[in-house]
Amino acid sequence: MEVKRIGVLGAGLMGSGIAQVCAQAGFEVGMRDIEDRFVQNGFDAIKKSLQRLVKGGKIKQEDVEKILGRINGTTDLKEAIEDVDLVIEAAPEDLDLKKRIFKEVDELCPGHTILASNTSGLMITDIASATKRPDKVIGMHWFNPPPIMRLIEVVKGALTSDETYESVRELSVKLGKEPVLAADGPGFFTTRYINWYAAETIRLLESGVAGIKEMDKMCRLGFGWPMGPIELMDLVGLDTIVHTLDYLHRETGDPKYAPPLTLKKLVKAGYIGRKPGSKGGFYEYFKVREKA
Fold it and tell me: What CATH number is given for 191-282 in this structure?
């Protein structure tokens, strides 16, 4: 099935970025969030992103209004997904919330519509169980920031059809991305792997092997990473890391995914990384500790 119209549920960092990529590729997009201010924030983020592309010579100024004109921002779910061929859900990582959304969307969308989740690790099979079309439910895991990062981890649930997968794979290529297939399971590949090394990094810190600056520096210089593991955790959000590790530990029973005590202490103390309302992340926390 050829995808022509796309609905994006969520206008936050990921949702607005996904909407921008789709609109840049020429697709008509409905971008929905629960409040007008969230929708406006999404448009503001898209405008800033597009202006960066103009300054970098990637697009022309006259292209900006055309791209924005392809995005219909709304708080009305039915308006956002009416007659779309694909829905991309980009809501918070809460399984009950996602299942409620998919149940409602399943009832409102045409029968041919593919329902994709941008979840970074919740099992697609579980999300699909809330619908009457599990063959058309698939994982479409984007990476931050969506306009720049090329990977889309495409995840087939237990009942996802080959036709659904091929449609999403072809669309991903049209969007200028590199789709890579992963089997369903807690965390798929990327999230399970990233959170394993995040937890191991903190355990190495706790055991005194190296400090946070030293570990970040060694990973940047020795492995060629653009940022170290501590910097990455601060960017993702320490509360998100704890939540994901809890989920992986619960679903797999593997003790290596148990959230380290230091990580939980930082979150409880209000140090959740580079997020609004946070006191900071690892670096800020240890500066306070050094002064104490």
Answer: 1.10.1040.10
